[in-house]
Amino acid sequence: MITRGLAPGAPREQDCRIVENVTAVVPFLNVSDMELSLRYYVEGLGFTMRNHWIDNGKLRWCWLQNGGASLMLQEFWREGPHTGRPDGKLGLGVSLAFQCQDALAIYREITSRGIEAAEPFVGNALWTFFLSDPDGYRIEFASPTDTPEDTKLSELTAL
Fold this sequence. Notes:
Layout lengths: L17 H4 L6 E4 L2 H11 L3 E8 L2 E9 L2 E7 L19 E5 L3 H10 L8 E3 L2 E7 L5 E7 L8 H5 L2
Parallel strand pairs: 1-4, 5-8
Antiparallel strand pairs: 2-3, 3-4, 6-7, 7-8
């Protein structure tokens, strides 16, 4: 039974139903330029907008989806009481790992759209490749494979 960190009198593990209530985790990315980020994710990576919030004629927030994966974007306010963009690179230390059926197909599709991405390689029995969005958030696409570890895509296509 997990008890450490619970307040006195708080329900114990057998009384909690949190696990049964959670349905998804959806990354919420604060971005510096909503239009640029939206183009990147929708036109570049193939996401579709599922929901959005427009305030005074400006898109402030949106929920994007691609297959079973979702993420939310919100631009930092530049004026008013909700300002607060942190100093430095926004995406530093943040990585989004999308598990998919065919990472190589996604790689070929997005690079054909002009998106820059690192060469795919096999690691941990997964074809994996990385890219960075306009704010520096690291994005990874990966799919299972039987290809030997450390194989690079260029090694297969050179044959």
